[in-house]
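FORM 7B: Structural annotation worksheet

SECTION A. Query
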Amino acid sequence: MTNATDRSTATPPAGPPLWAPWYGIGFPAAFGRFFRKYADFTGRAGRAEYWWWVLWAVIIFVPLSIVGSVIDVATGFGADTDPASLQAVTESFRSPSSIISYVFGLVILVPGWALAARRLHDTGRSGWWQLLQLVPIVGGIVLIVWYASASRPDGARYDRPRR
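SECTION B. Predicted structure
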């Protein structure tokens, strides 16, 4: 039997409020939280919340790519074009596999940016640091290191409860 003080310090089954980081979030909960905070660039996201979503995205993207490629092969899409031609390049953007990938990418674009901004907030950095992606190779490496780094106490300045 637990007493009242034990229950008051325990994390509720639904997790902390959306404005607060959820450290130690589970795999399924990370998927739901990602879409509940669709375009919310405020607050923080712990490492688990960020990396569980990355795993979800890979798990969704790989089968979508395989299905799209199977459809390309089954329909003979692009079989009659010279692979070195400009026409092959432009037609590749209209292939079923490309269309499936583009739709998925568009669906997760804004929430992905928002999650990355919240993850950077948790490390004490501004979400604008995502612009480092524009620096070839080095920018991506720096961001991966920051996304994987531990939470910092000064990141709490990004926590603002909504009223």
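SECTION C. Observations
The CA atoms of residues 19 and 163 lie 11 Å apart. The first helix runs from residue 4 to 9.

SECTION D. Sign-off
Analyst initials: ____
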